[in-house]
Amino acid sequence: MLVLNHIYFAYFLKTKAIFQYIDLWSSVFTWGGTSVPGEGDLVVIQESQTIYFDAQTPVLAGLLIIGGSLIFDDMQDVSLQAQYIIIAANGTLQIGTEQAPFMHKATITMYGGLRSVELPIFGSKVIALRNGTIDMHGAPVGVTWTHLSTTANEGDSQITLKEPVIWSVGSEIVIASTADHLNIGQNEVRTITAVNGNQLTLDSPLNYTHLSIKRTVYDTDVYIRAEVGLLTRNILFNGINDDSWDSLNTAPACPSGFLPGVSSVQTCFLGRYGAEIGTDQFGAHIMISAGNMAGTTKFTEEVVIARFSNVELFHVGQAYRLGRYPIHFHMNGNMPSSYVKECSIHESFNRATNIHASHYITIESNVIYNIMGGAYFLEDGVEIGNTFKNNLAIFVISSESLLNEDTTPGRI
Question: Which domains does the chain carry?
Answer without folding.
Answer: 33-140+268-411 (no CATH), 145-231 (2.40.30)
